Structures are given as C-alpha cells and as structure tokens.
Amino acid sequence: MKLIKWLVILAIVAGAIGGGWWWWKRRANDAPQYQTTAVVRGDLTQLVTATGQLNPVLNVQVGSQISGIIDKLFVDFNSPVKAGQVIALIDPSTYQANLLQAEADLASVNAALELAKINESRAKELLAKELIPPSDYDKSIAGLHQAEATVKQKEASRAKVKIDLDRCTITAPVDGIVISRNVDVGQTVAASLSAPTLFVIANDLTKMQIDANVAEADIGVVEVGQKVDFTVDAFPMRTFHGEVMQVRNAPLTVQNVVTYDTVIAVNNGDLKLKPGMTANVSIIIAQRPEALKIPNAALRYRPADTTKPAPGAAKKREHSPTRTVYILDTAGKPQPVQVKTGITDGLATEITDGLKEDDKVITSSTAKPTTSAPQNPFSPGMPRRF
Questions:
Q1: What is the maximum alpha-carbon separation in the chain?
Q2: What is this structure's pTM?
C-alpha cells in the first residue's frame, strides 16, 4: 500500500511538472517574434524621378509663304545642310509670268509719266505767255504728280512679285541636319491660310535637351545646376548624364495632375541619342557618402499595443525630421527611441541623431496564433451529424 501511495504521489508531481513545462512552452511560442536590422553606414542619394522626351536644343521648322507645286527636292531625311543652301524648289512658272506682267505695267506707267512731264513743261511755257488760264497749268501739275504716284505703285507691285518669285527657292536658315521632310515632288503646297511646314532642321544633335515633366510635389526641391542620370529604352544597360538647365514656371495639367517642364541639358557627342526618345530621368537632389542609415520599414513599424495616433498626427509626424523607431531592451521588449532623420532614397533613411552604428532597430514582428481548445460537438450551435 505504501508503494502504491508513493507511486500516486510521484505521478501527481510528474504531471504537475509536465503541465507547467507545457504551459511555459506555450507562452513562449505565443510571444511576438521581432525582426531587427543593424544601423549601418553607406552612401545615400535622394532622387526625384520623372519622364521626358529628348529634343534638339534648336529645332527650326522650314515653311513656305507661297503656294505652288514642289518642283525639286535637294535634301532628304538625315541630310546635313548649311545655312543658305537650296533644299527645295517650288514651280516658278506662275510667278515668272506675274513678274513679266508687272514689268509691262511699270513700263506703261513710265510712258505715261514721260507724257505728263512733257504736258507740264508745255503748260508752263504757255502760262508764261498768258496763252492758257492758270487752271490748265494746275491740271498739268496734278497729272504729273498722279503719273509719278502710279509709277511708284507699279514699282512696288513688281518688287512684291519678284519677292514671291525668289521665295520659290527654299533655303536652309541654319546649319544642321534634316530630321523631318513633309513634302514630295509634285505635291501642291497651299499657303493661303497658314505657312505649311516643309522640313524640320535640327541645328546641332551633339547638344540636346530633355523636357521632363516633374510633379508639383517634387518641383520644390529641383534647382538649376543639379546633376541628372537618365536611361532610354534603346540602351537599357547604359546610364547617360545631364544637368538641370531651366525649371519653367508654366504648369501643365493632365487629368488633374500638375507638372512643370524641367529642361535638362545633355551632351550627345557620340550621337547615340535621337530626337523623340523617352528618357527615364533621375534628378540628384542630395548625396550623403557614408551616411548612418536604417531601412524605411523601421520608421513604419509600431508595436501591436501602441495606441494609434490621431488622423492628422501621422501625416504631421511623417514630414517632421524627428521620428520614432523601436529597439529591443534587455527584457526583449520594444523600446521607443526618438531619432532625427535626413535624406531618403525611398528604401533607407539617413539618421543624424538618436542612434549609433550597429544598433538593432525593429522592422517587423510576428506572433503565432493561440491554438484554441477543441469544441464539444454536442455544444449548442454546433451542427450535429446522425
């Protein structure tokens, strides 16, 4: 009987010890597991990203002020041209005929002017001999002046026709390369309402610019002189460089999104970049070599039992240089730390005060759900199977 008694006591003690161990293990498994990362030093670059289009610095549209049929073309796409070089010819037949007509009209009024001069001279002599009344002499003077005015009018008409004839010859206004040709031989150019564009000439493709559309939220930190890195789809493995040359104040609104045209100067000495290419631009706002930095996830982390801030407080704190991060104390509990932040590259943020290198900051936490006890199949509300 004593042996049985001691066996029962030992069984009770063992059960108590086993139950205590199981309870402690379960509590340990239910405790939150924290993911931490070390505060490290490294280079940090803050960027403003945008997209834009590559364009020549000077783009000249060559048009026509007269109408007619394209008689000859002397250049094509990608043709290099010099200023004053003939690049196209409009059929001059109509304007040559107009010039002959104007010269004939001018010759006719010149003859009339000669007759008016003779009449005035004769009238003057007759008036001196009192053979005609003064009114007749006045008429001869008026006739002379009218003939002189008619001559000037016809001379102006001839000059206009001659200018139109000269405009049949289209010349290049600047040195450059033809990047667009909009007409063919035999095509009729109609310049009655507006001057049509015949060619587009890029002055110098070794110097180009990007017209980048920067969002209004980022335009406040963009300044003239900042360095720019960009890529184009034609050369995805190559990074090109440029510099902000101008930030234009004219806003552009597309679907309620306000952007500002930022002009970026680009050196295209090897002529790899072509007009019209889409550039993915990264404007370098600030750089910090060997900066103390933490992942942005550490700035977003909050323990589960932390009281949620007021709706407006989070946004205000987000724009403040003072932020709160959490580290683990000696008991393994999250401990808040106030830090001062600097620039960010979107993945990591500079820490200027509050932490030191190799400190561990919490980035996330996980907790295992508590296993619920099995439910009684005969309890109320449980479906019964028969």
A1: 181
A2: 0.68
